[in-house]
């Protein structure tokens, strides 16, 4: 389908990067971009977001090009979306809806599909107001009352029932994952999670470390479902490595909420590998976005290594840099290329050292616990092996 992209510059420093990202999102969703319209405003118009003049201009483009819809690089209110659709007479999609559509397209696992549907329904719940305006009760006498209010209430009840059912299903799956996590904990497996901005190269690095063959591509949200694999690092040391969903600017809150169960793999990790696109000009903004989501899900205090990927593009050699202990969770930076494999062996060495350190801590803790128990036994005057 043919779409027009619309962006409004409100003076934000990263507007250009955000709008370029919108085009990638649209193409990832299968849209054909036929025109890009950019305007400047000090604040959004309450009724049409872009103002009546710009709206009329885009309406003319919709007819002349022609276009099947219009995609906005912003979150629209239900009223703004409805008003714009009346002016354009085609479908209007905001950034939030577009991201939700891509997630729905890419989710493969049963749990991933449930999470996306839950996010979509929560987003839709705010859009039901006047969605059935053609059935609303009208002022007048007998014979002039339509079933609109009843229809709206019925839709809301059906939506609420589905949300409750999906939430219950996800809660059950979360319990299963918790059981699996406890089993890994009993096995004292060092848990590592890959996090990062979408298209930073997480899945490519995951494949380099695990040879799992997880789908990866140069596109936004190439993979959505969390994948966990065991990785043998040598000397009898294994770790559990999880590849999680990528983050993005203005990630819809509904998605963060819906994917919290999946992101718990991150919350319960012993170490995070924050994969960063070192070749991106907006990498600082992307890092901030990821750290914001990590803080929201309660994972901002977990030890973290910044993995600066794509050195095959930047020309920087593989290297490790220790970071000063200033109270932050970040412990170091490692430069590598997940595509070529340069620097990946250095990462394996660092992971092995971290896993060994963790195992040593566990063994020391067990020894201390055993000594404490022995001291308590002798202090109580109970001989070892006694039935009393």
The biggest beta sheet is recorded as: 7 strands, mixed
Low-confidence stretches: 129-146
* Strand-residue proportion: 15-25%
Main structural class: alpha/beta
Which descriptor suits the 3D outline? Answer: globular
Mean of the pLDDT scores?
81
Order of helices and strands: EHEHEHEHHHEHEEHHEHEHEEH
CATH fourth-tier homologous superfamily of the domain at 192-363? P-loop containing nucleotide triphosphate hydrolases
- Strands side by side in the biggest sheet: 6-7-5-8-9-11-10
CATH topology of the domain at 192-363: Rossmann fold
What would you report as the Rg, rounded to the nearest angstrom? 26 Å
Q: How many strands?
A: 11
CATH architecture of the domain at 192-363: 3-Layer(aba) Sandwich
Count of discrete alpha- or pi-helical segments spanning 4 or more residues: 12
Helix content: 40-55%
The CATH class name of the domain at 192-363 reads: Alpha Beta
Straight-line distance between termini: 79 Å
Domain Hflx-type G: 190-359
Family: Belongs to the TRAFAC class OBG-HflX-like GTPase superfamily. HflX GTPase family.
Region (Disordered): 362-388
Pfam families: GTP-bdg_M, GTP-bdg_N, MMR_HSR1
């Amino acid at each position: 389908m043919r779409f027009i992209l619309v962006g409004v510059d409100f003076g934000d420093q990263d507007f250009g990067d955000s709008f370029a990202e919108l085009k990638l999102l649209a193409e990832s969703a299968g849209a054909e971009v036929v025109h890009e319209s950019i305007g400047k405003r000090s604040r959004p118009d309450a009724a049409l977001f872009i103002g009546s003049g710009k709206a009329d201009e885009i309406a003319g483009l919709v007819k002349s090009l022609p276009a099947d819809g219009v995609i906005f690089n912003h979150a629209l209110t239900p009223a703004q979306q409805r008003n714009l659709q009346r002016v354009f007479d085609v479908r209007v999609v905001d950034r939030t809806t577009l991201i939700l559509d891509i997630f729905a397209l890419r989710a493969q696992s049963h749990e991933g599909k449930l999470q996306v549907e839950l996010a979509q329904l929560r987003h839709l719940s705010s859009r039901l107001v006047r969605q059935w305006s053609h059935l609303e009760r009208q002022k007048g006498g007998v014979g002039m009352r339509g079933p609109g209010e009843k229809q709206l209430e019925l839709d809301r009840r059906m939506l609420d029932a589905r949300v409750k059912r999906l939430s219950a299903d996800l809660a059950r799956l979360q319990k299963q994952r918790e059981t699996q996590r406890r089993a890994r904990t009993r096995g004292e497996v060092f848990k590592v999670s890959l996090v990062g901005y979408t298209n930073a190269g997480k899945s490519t690095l995951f494949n380099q470390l695990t040879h799992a063959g997880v789908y990866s591509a140069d596109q936004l949200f190439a993979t959505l479902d969390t994948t966990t694999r065991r990785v043998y690092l040598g000397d009898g040391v294994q770790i559990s490595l999880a590849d999680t969903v990528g983050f993005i600017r203005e990630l819809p809150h509904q998605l963060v909420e819906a994917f919290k169960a999946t992101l718990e793999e991150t919350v319960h990790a012993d170490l995070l590998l924050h994969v960063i696109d070192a070749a991106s000009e907006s990498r600082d903004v992307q890092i901030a976005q990821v750290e914001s989501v990590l803080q929201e899900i309660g994972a901002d205090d977990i030890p973290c290594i910044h993995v600066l990927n794509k050195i095959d593009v930047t020309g920087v050699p593989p290297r490790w840099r220790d970071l000063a202990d200033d109270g932050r969770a970040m412990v170091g930076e490692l430069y590598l290329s997940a595509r070529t494999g340069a620097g990946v062996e250095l990462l394996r060495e660092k992971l092995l050292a971290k896993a060994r350190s963790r195992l040593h801590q566990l063994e020391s803790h067990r020894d201390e616990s055993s000594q404490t128990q022995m001291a308590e036994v002798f202090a109580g005057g109970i001989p070892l092996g006694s039935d009393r």
